[in-house]
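Margin note from the TA: students keep mixing up input and output lines. Inputs are the sequences; the output is the structure of the whole complex. Example:
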Amino acid sequence: MDWDVILRNLPFLLMGLQTTFKLAIVAAAGAFPLGILLGLSRLSSKWWLYYPASAYVHLIRSVPLILVIFWFFFLMPIITGRPVGSFTSAAVAFIIFEAAYFAEIVRAGIQSISKGQVMAGLSTGLSHISTMRHIVLPQAIRNMIPVLVTQVIVLFQDTSLAYVIGVREFLRWTSLVDAREFRSIELYATAAVVYFIICFVGSTITRRLEKKGGRLR
Amino acid sequence: MIDINNVSKWYGKLQVLHNVTEKIERGQTVVICGPSGSGKSTLLRCINGLEYFQQGEIIVDGISVQSRSTNIYELRADIGMVFQHFELYPHMTCLDNITLAPRKVRKKLEEEARTLAMSLLERVGIPEQAHKYPGELSGGQKQRVAIARALAMKPKIMLFDEPTSALDPEMIKEVLDVMIDLTKGGMTMIVVTHEMGFAREVADEIIFMDEGRIIERGADESFFRNPKSERTKQFLSKILM
Amino acid sequence: MHPYGGWMLQGIFTTIHLSGIGWIIALILGVVVGTSRVFPVAFIRFLGTAYVELFRNIPLLVQLFIWYFAVPLVLPHTARLWMYENVPNVEYMAALAALSIYTSSRVGEQIRSGLQSIPKEQYQAALSTGLSQIQMYRYVVIPYAARIIIPPLTGEFIGIFKNSSLALTIAVSEVTFMSQRIDSYTFHGIEAVMGASGVYIIICLTIMFFMGFIESRVSVPGLIKR
């Protein structure tokens, strides 16, 4: 086994890793706010918020990510009228896709706060908005954080799918190097180890957060 | 002070309140007892607008609860409620639990609200718990903080929804003592409870409800000794020893 | 439309049997893994945890590539030759291996979670009436846990169908692959992709409907608070 192949091609692999992180950060930064909006809409009593948001979430959650990536690969040039790079298409696809998952986390988090808390707040004369702001949301966010971090880790893993439209992220670079060097075992094992370390560290942090958060009540 | 006129409520097809009518005077303490599912808690929540009723009218101090012109938030500020499971906000200290509504609704300043909260904590007997979180308190202490929280808005009426049902037996007394204290101070109170000792001691009127209807009312010892209705007899024989 | 409809049908069929067989394997492995994580022997618990952590922290696509590109190289020379000559569909096998093992680690997690959510008082109550360990598992624990596990397991079942789309990267002719093939012939990429999307939506709805039916048949009043 020739482990030197990793060292020789390190610059390329690192470039790929950098793109992976960029893609993940852009996707998370876009998907999170959109997810919050969608999640709150799914709890709203206004039909013009509830139905579109629910349709969106159910639709996106029924189709594979690869397909959503292909959708935007075809649609982006049409929408913007110009050719669009694969990174951008992938980024948009990830934002739209992951937002549906963040939305469900937000919705479940807010719904997990017992109705008794809401009644307690209202019974002292607080408005619905005040009750949301001071009583429900602080508790909901604290509960949601571990699940949100887990979803970010999933998002990080999902970036590898940008491979299918040629985005030069970490996995794509690994396979490009493999095509030239034919050292599949060393290369893919390394890729696996890198992803594993990053995600395992991430999920360990999540477990710590869960333990800390469980102190309330 | 509180006029309940022919109130009926349905959850879907199930009718949970049947033409409930009752009048409660200022300063009275009324105890409502009855089996689970009899509608007692629901009735209580209709009074401060936390539950909606389809028929009838509830008038609190001249204001109709479900009228369109009523500001329900203002009305709720004048009615205090204490819950079976305390429902203290776990992410805030006891002091903050009590000062939240006075600050946000009555727009009191931090300083003023704190002083008020401390005096209330003293009144319920636990000033030293002010900076602790609800998770660090016993059940009896939590409920007393909940009572202080309700009193912080200086309500005209206090509603108690089975305040001692979730407590260990040795803590029931400390909460009941606070409630007796309130009664003696002239507060208008409606208490849903199974604590017949409390009812005997301080209630001006006792109401027995079953299946969404008021079955019997009594104003004194005769309610316990000689209940008029068969169902009341059955219920009392099961809970009194 | 003629050959393309046929291609789509073939793709749908491949998606269904790839996911179906993968699911069965994943369930079997998942039950083993899930129960090993609550086994009284610490070493077995460790093995179970290692399995789950390994396969859930590596992206499925990377696992797929490892099975397809790297694993054949690990096999001894003769075995590799035999495989390439006698196994007709190496891509399919690699996809099946990756999908089922990845899914089994997730299923194992759900099963562990279900088993652990049964309060230990239930175990104590069962044993106190004189039931043996095996009887306790058979009559009390497993029926209880099974009902708790059904909703998340449904999610994983839908998941394996969606994840089968990754096999297109190694030229397994499942439905998404076919949609891209149609696009490369006709340049009607959008229609092809919409068609594939429709297939997945229908599959999802069907599974949810079916599992909803099963849930209501086996449900015990008051057991699962929704």
